[in-house]
Specification:
Order of helices and strands: EHEHEHEHEHEHHEEEHHHH
Radius of gyration: 20 Å
Number of strands: 9
Helix content: 25-40%
Largest sheet: 7 strands, mixed
Number of domains: 2
Shape: elongated
Distance between the termini: 37 Å
CATH class of the largest domain: Alpha Beta
Strand order of the largest sheet: 4-3-2-5-6-9-7
Number of helices: 11
CATH topology of the largest domain: Rossmann fold
Structural class: alpha/beta
CATH architecture of the largest domain: 3-Layer(aba) Sandwich
CATH superfamily of the largest domain: Vaccinia Virus protein VP39
């Protein structure tokens, strides 16, 4: 039994009833191209592998790799990629597998949002995603406009995916127990035609970031430098409104109204789930 490493944010899932419910939610099938991010000790890996027959796991902690490989040897064919999930090209992996991937994983809380955005960048290569996350993050992901937890993460995910919270998981299901509740969420990428034009991505990110960066300000003030009141109104949005009241599609309209020349120079800051 491995000792969880704090610097990796490891909390190993061990409660059998919870594991069975997650596997039932994923509904693995023989031949599925399942890729698990952060398999840990294999609590989800082995039951998924038992059904799928073969799968891939992405693990950063090299101390966990050989024990997991040994556990999986009699269950099915497990390929382990020793890497940071943020550096794995999921599109290339899907091409190598010959079809869309089904992602799963108990994501470390400290890096969950960057991993989500990394997966969104490869949405065309994914069939679905089932992730365990901090419940507060799942609440933000699924939030509707008008609530306090509705924010940048809500907008960006809902523009790309159908977001379905599935089950709540208490701290006692993990070793060691985290200080917060967790939740499992299913993300299903929307058809390409229903997602924003990829060419709009940087402008959309800039608009959403600016709008929620100053939540208490009206859009006129928050989007100063990107759009004026007349342009916001022309996009069908009340310039006196605040970001938290605007549906995801409204941000697409705002991004379409922007002049690309007004984009901030340089790389946008890293993603986080705080807004």
């Amino acid at each position: 039994m491995a000792r969880p490493k704090k610097h990796y944010g490891q909390h190993f899932l061990h409660e059998r009833g919870v594991i069975e419910r997650i596997v039932a939610a994923i509904t693995p099938r023989p031949g599925d191209r399942i890729v698990e991010i952060g398999p840990g000790e294999g609590a989800l890996t082995l039951p998924l592998l038992r059904v799928a027959g073969r799968m891939t796991a992405i693990e950063l902690d090299d101390d966990l790799i050989e024990p997991l490989r040994a556990r999986a040897a009699s269950v099915g064919e497990l390929e382990i990629i020793h890497a940071d999930a943020l550096k794995v090209d999921l599109t290339a992996l899907a091409e190598a597998e010959g079809g869309k991937l089904r992602l799963a994983g108990n994501l470390p809380y400290y890096v969950s949002s960057p991993i989500l955005f990394h997966c969104l960048a490869h949405a065309d290569a994914l069939a679905d995603m089932h992730f365990m996350l901090q419940k507060e993050v799942v609440d933000r992901m699924a939030a509707a406009p008008g609530g306090k937890v509705y924010g940048r993460l809500s907008v960006m995910l809902q523009l790309a995916c159908k977001v379905e919270p599935l089950l709540r998981v208490a701290p006692g299901a993990f070793r060691p127990p985290p200080k917060v509740d967790s939740a499992v969420v299913r993300l299903t990428p929307l058809p390409t035609a229903q997602r924003p034009d990829p060419g709009l991505a940087r402008m959309l990110e800039a608009v959403v970031r600016a709008a929620f960066g100053q939540r208490r300000k009206t859009l006129t003030n928050a989007l100063h430098g990107l759009l004026d009141a007349d342009a916001i109104r022309a996009a069908g949005i009340d310039p006196r409104a605040r970001a938290e009241t605007i549906a995801p599609a409204g941000f697409v309209a705002l991004a379409q109204a922007c002049n690309p020349a007004d984009l901030p120079h340089g790389t946008l800051p890293a993603h986080n789930a705080d807004q």
